Amino acid sequence: LTSSPKRSGLYVIHIAAEMAPVAKVGGLGDVITGLSKALQSRGHLVEIVLPKYDCMEYSRIKDLRLLDAVLESYFDGRLFKNKIWVGTVEGLPVYFIEPLHPDKFFWRAQYYGEHDDFRRFSYFSRAALELLTRAGKRPDIIHCHDWQTAFIAPLYWDLYYPKGLNSARICFTCHNFEYQGTAPASDLGSCGLDVDQLNRQDRLQDNSSHERINAVKGAVVFSNIVTTVSPTYAQEVRRAEGGHGLHSTLNFHSKKFFGILNGIDTEVWNPATDSFIKVQYNANDLQGKAENKDALRRHLGLSSNVRKPLVGCITRLVPQKGIHLIRYAIYRTLELGGQFVLLGSSPVPHIQREFEDIANHFQSHDQIRLVLAYDESLSHWIYAGSDMFIIPSIFEPCGLTQMIAMRYGSIPIVRKTGGLNDSVFDVDDERTPTELQNGYTFLTPDEQGMNSALERAFSHYLNNPSSWKQLVQKVMDVDFSWETSAAQYEELYSKSVARAKAAAAGR
Ligand code: ADP
Going by fewer Cβ within 10 Å, which terminus of the chain is more open, N or C? Predict the structure, then answer.
């Protein structure tokens, strides 16, 4: 196994289930890469540990090689061998763990949604800590993300700290409290955690069932730093309506709980250099944006050469995203004389079917197109070709698509919730300073709310083109880079490391 080089900055290891662009399902993948790159450029040593999925984008990994040593890790009372691969993704060193377990945990042709996800990821969490221990790594921070690697926090303190992997503080980021990783308490034993010790109200026991344990709750209890992905969402989840059952736990641990707004990777999302789009452009030269719009319309078989606003939407189609309002916006856009392009797919069969019906209905329509797929290259093109971008979420921990849309000059129309509330400010809201106003917002998640924002945007676009153009130019210049957020993480990491050092010196 490789050893870790010495540096003056912090040594941070992210352990996660996703990383863009090699293994991305949603925003989590973007965050792992974006935050890591920003921390690396601030002088820290950053490494990432991922499962070696069969369905990864292998072409985006540089210099992938198998290490000689085989790693043994514990599960279900015995040891299993794992192959360890290393490679470089976006300039970042990544370890990939390939379990040689008969259940072929990461040979499923998909990332999540398997009947044994709890086993797959508790196995991975344990193997990742085993890797760090065997490799003799001495990180300052082990940063785990979402329920899939939430097991890291109790595993670290109960099993690995005593084994000598004891240099680190644990940071846990929850990207969405809807997904908590709950299971019958006995399932926790597979990865070697002590069920009797941990199935307690103040530890991993689920707040609504004494027979179940909750991985995210465990990470909240056992981590030194707990964050979520926007300040507004951090407030929302501390209330009964928004906490998905964890509000009391989060309130109890509020001193170590922070909301930090995600950034976006401004190198990947840059209309001036983007090779996925037809014509590169910038805020001072919007002709390219118009050309992308026309090319997109032709590509999708929509009518072109008319000044009609094109509304975009790129999303996982899950209830959180305001499915009924997305559907409503498609029909309402048509009535208002606009065009609509949706790129999305759903892990929920009945939602997928519902949108397939709508897609079929509009199959050869010249104003509406639904593409029910995951398509990275088309996503770039839609950001570039759309004038407006809707995100009517019921709740939204951070949301990245509003920031990406703005970077490409597409004006966001969003529900005021979570990170959308922290990044989109209504152009008609007199209480917001003009320089911050950058989109359209509505509060009540119903058709009226959606319609009022959509109508205002259409009216602005159609009746006042020069002011619309200024708005487009303004939002393209908003700084959504990782710089500010990475500095906030850095501060939390440093303070936590300093506290640990002070405590050790005082002993
Ligand atoms: P979430 O993490 O809840 O899915 P975010 O807004 O945080 O939502 O992140 C969504 C990310 O996934 C964005 O980068 C968006 O462009 C991308 N994305 C979502 N759906 C698709 C799709 N069907 N095809 C391509 N990219 C998609």
Answer: C
